[in-house]
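INTERNAL TRANSFER SHEET
From: sequence group
To: structure group
Subject: PiggyBac transposable element-derived protein domain-containing protein

Please process the attached sequence and return the structure record in the designated field. Keep the field labels unchanged so the import script can parse them.
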Amino acid sequence: MSRQRFHFIQSCLRFDDKSTREERKLLDNLAPIREIFELFVENCKKSYVLGEYVTIDEMLLAFRGRCKFRQYIPTKPAKYGIKVLAMVDAQNFYIFNLEIYAGKQPEGPFSVNNKSFDVVNRLVLPISKTGRNVTFDNWFTSYELVSHLLNEHKLTSVGTVRKNKRVLPNKFLKTSDRDADVYSSKFGFQKDITLVSYIPKKKKVVLLISSLHHDADIDETTGERKKPEINTFYNSTKGGVDVVDELSATYDVSRNSKKWPLTVFYAILNMAGINADIVFKCNTNSTQKRRNFIKTLGRMMVAEHMSARKEIPQLSSQLRKRMREFGGESAQETPVRVPGVRKRCQVCPYARHRKTSNVCEDCHKYICPEHTVSFCQECAAITDNNIE
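Return from structure group:
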């Protein structure tokens, strides 16, 4: 299609019934995109079985237009945008569950608590009581959350802990008496939960909590740094959502827009491409590069439309040629007969300049009556059978 038509279609994209939108917005800030977003999330859940380790973290969809729940996160590259909480497979990076932060919702069915405890509790519902492990950062981590996941959802968890948590013993926070012991670790144990305080350098302490580990093992592969196994396990599983952000940015379909539902829609397309590639590779053991997979996927999605459109005689020959090349067909164009159009006979010498509207059924050349051979229907049927 032309660029002008592409921009026209883009400007007309809507994902709900505009006539009832204002009424639905009284109950839901995500009314313009709610239906398609939830449909996408449900399909993600149905299409893949997660591995034993998952990651929960936040993503920021870059957006600087008008939106009542736009967020400012200075640690993110975009800084301003729409925050999405995601649960991702920590090994294959499959996006399994998503939730858009919509701010304070009006009273009604979509009014939910946005505290980290409740967000994690909602995200893990599809994998509740499956024995998997959940990794998250210090924005989510709390003793109450780790205990709740273990007792109510039968899920273990690992995460870093902020120093302002009241449940932390003072001995795990102080570094003054441990500055000489760089790369040292101090462990605390309860029945099902382990706390570790690790000093990577002077006057700095890293706190981690785990319901998966129940010993004071040190990872010998870290050499003189002597990192606890809890620390190395956290580092190996914490980056699931960050990798999804990186994959989305590598082959990004998003475009600048003043409408936040479009920003969410472009993010859905990016994540759908990532998930489709993972499912394809898991089912076929393919080693195809993601770039080639996305290109093939795009061609397959438009193949049916293009095969019908390239037969339209009113289109320019150059456009039809490009569509045939895109579809992997021969670039040589089969002449299209337009009713009422007369062209020069392609058999007669050029000097005779004889025009005709007759076309050969086999080679599609324009031929004048002098070079035309007529058959009755019976003879034509016999000729066709002999050819077959």
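Handover comment: The two ends are 38 Å apart (CA to CA). The chain has a mean pLDDT of 88.
Transfer complete.
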